[in-house]
Amino acid sequence: MPAPADGSRRFGVNDMPTFLEHYWSIFFFFGFVVVLAFAWQRFNEPSFPNQEALPRTVEPLRYLFLKPAYQKARFAYVTGLLLLYALLVAPGPKIVPALGEFGFKGFPPEGWALLVALFLTGVGVAPSSLKWLNIIEEHLRRLVHAWFLVPYGVERTIGVLEDARYEPPQSQLNLVQSPLREKLQEDLRLPPGTLRHRWARATILMTSLKQMGAGAVHPLQKAAFDPFQEDLKGLLITYRSLKQDIQAQAGEQITADTEENLTMSVDNLLKRIYAYISWGIRYQADSERDVDQTLEELGFRIPKTGGRRLFDIVIPAVLLVALIATLFWITMDSVSRAMGWSAPSRSESIVLALSSATAASFMYGWAIFIALKRRSVQIERKIWHDGSPRCLIPIAIRAGLVTWLVIIATTMFWGLSETWQSLGGLAQLAKSFAGGAPVSAAEWNFLPRMIATALPWLLAGAVVSAVLANSLSGEVRRTEKSHQVLDAIFLGGALGLAAGSAQLFQLSLMDAFDGNTRSLGDVPIVALAGFACGAVIGFKVPRACRNNLVTPLDPIMARALRDLLAQAESALGSKVAAENWAFTPHTDLGGITPAEAVQYKTYATGVRRLLESEASRRREEGRREGLAPVVIDGGLAERPANARAFAQ
User: Fold this and answer.
1) Cβ atoms within 10 A of the Cβ of 62, count?
2) Cβ of 493: how many Cβ atoms within 10 Å?
3) pLDDT value at position 535?
4) Which tens digit of pLDDT belongs to each residue from 530-588?
5) What is the greatest pairwise CA distance in the chain?
6) Cα 277 from Cα 415, distance rounded (Å)
7) Helix or strand holding residue 389 (H, E)
8) What Å distances lie between residue 212 and 289, 334, 634, CA to CA?
9) Which among 113, 64, 59 has a CA at the least distance from the CA of 89?
């Protein structure tokens, strides 16, 4: 890219003070204060729909955060918005003359910073072309809320309580007067799916909630629930109405339809009770461990879960990808020089290989992490289904966008001088719209062209993440070398095809930009490099994930799996049957195995209920087989003695 006529770059050292001087203006200070005040208040506005799991009012929003997390989340949001403000101010007064085209004629250049602040905060009436600033702000707020588990933390707690066993301590039972207390204890011993069990649970919990702040020792702090008084009143009204309906049915034969309707109503009441408990507990707790401890004191048996150590799976694969990419491109350049073909020098080859390896390791490293993390999040929320495009597409889009951003960032880093020159050219281009001197495309088109031509690489990140997430399904004991090789070939082929297609599309875009026709000889080479990286990922990651399910790295998860296998062996009759059940996918679990489901709080209790159901089903099948008559010579023979004994 040609340098300016005076031999200096657009943003050299001598120009830096001028470039930064508008950050020291009074307008920037006022804009900073406006954005700070706006962000401080704006953070409390919900960025999510007011769902059934949320209180009637979510103001103040801090009651949905863990107690210490609220200030951290607000600080993260305010800092992010201020950084966005500083970034938007960066073009400086040079861009102000271009605003004349949008109706801002005569605007003082030094007021640019304040104008950015007004548009960003929505105080000023921004043109429709600048509404994207408000969209960015809302997305940033939603991202910070989600990062600190709002409202997902409440939803997860509700899901855990729905499946958790409930064994209220004596201190909670004593809040109920006899003889009702003894009847509720008897009903709690019934199967959790029965109406009597559910109503007993709702009765004890409602009695406990009404006793908060009455002077008795209670695990819940009444002050933490004060903002939700309207919700408590609604719970009491619903509870009293259901109580009348259930009492009206006492002593009578309840029809199936009536029982089903009452059960659904009690379930809805319980879900709202769980939500109410979650809101207050999260505000009074300092950590998720404190939340679980308080729920245990209420009588819920919360399953213990540990970490899944994703970085232990991702880092080895990333390092191997970097090594393979470096060796691949150095080898290709060496072969080209040996054959007398056009190739860079040794030093240039090493630099280019390191550049490609850096981009590949970051691209595919983030794609692997996103695939594993987002799959785990979907499993935790009980929305994951193996092979479902509805689950895989969001993962692919997220990983693809990150891949595109990594390509842009690494290209800007390795072409820092061209990046600065392009930024200067873009500022001059904006000025030329208002009547300034024309600017040649060579001075500004590096960044726009690079951003546009990097877009096809979104395909590579999307493919590797979606294929990887889908490859983790099925039998988890597939850890033999043959399965590793098949995973490597499959993922390598998918990534090789995606990388080759991305390179082809990129060359086509570059041809469209400058009108030159480029050789397609690099396409198969890039595809081969993609195959090599994909094969490494396929060889390492799926097996590491399966090994982590069969022999978990985390001691808590290892203990949970041992307990599950012991229970399965006792229920199903043999170790082989227990392992086959634990390591085989189940449709009731969204296609994952019980060995993986037990690692998630929202599934851990349900897995054991699934085991009880499976054991009951097998006993029933065995009973039916034992009762089946044996046909001999057209007649009915007596059942064998062992079958008769089993049936009895």
Assistant:
1) 20
2) 17
3) 94
4) 999 999 999 999 999 998 888 887 888 888 889 899 999 998 989 999 999 999 999 88
5) 109
6) 55
7) helix 389-414
8) 22, 76, 73
9) 113
CA torsion sign for 172, 183, 602, 43 is negative
Matching residue, tokens 């090994």: 547
* β-strand partners of 166: 300
> CA-CA distance, 161 to 352, in Å (whole number)?
54
Per residue, what are the HEC states of 553-580?
A: CCHHHHHHHHHHHHHHHHHHCCHHHHHH
Token pair 């170790």: residue? 575
- The amino acid present at 44, given as its one-letter code, is N
Positive or negative, the CA dihedral 534, 540, 546, 548 is: negative
Task: Give the three-class secondary structure for 634.
Answer: coil
Tokens 């990129």 found at: 506
Amino acid identity of 269?
L
The confidence score (pLDDT) of residue 541 equals 93
Map tokens 């540990």 to a residue.
Answer: 306
Q: Cis link prior to 109 (omega < 30° from 0)? A: no
How large a percentage of the chain has pLDDT more than 90? 30
Show the tokens assigned to 259.
């029982």
Under-70 pLDDT residues of the chain: 1-22, 50, 52, 58-60, 91-110, 123-131, 251, 306-308, 427, 430-442, 626-648
Tokens at 253, concatenated: 């034969």
Say if residues 404 and 454 touch (Cβ distance below 8 Å). yes
Query: Residue written as tokens 């559910």?
Result: 198
Residue type, 36: L
pLDDT at 530: 92
Contacts 24+ apart (CB under 8 A), 44-48: 45/141, 46/145, 47/138, 47/141, 47/142, 47/145, 48/142, 48/145, 48/150, 48/151
Q: Are 590 and 335 in contact (CB under 8 A)?
A: no
111 secondary structure, DSSP code: G
Q: Do the Cβ atoms of 333 and 349 come closer than 8 Å?
A: yes
How far is Cα of residue 385 from the mean position of the Cα atoms in its chain? 15
What is the DSSP secondary-structure string of 288-300?
Answer: HHHHHHHHHHHTE
Q: Are 593 and 606 in contact (CB under 8 A)?
A: no
pLDDT at 606: 81
- Of 608, 612, 560, 605, whose CA–CA distance to 300 is shortest? 605
Tell me the torsion sign for CA atoms 236, 238, 239, 245.
positive
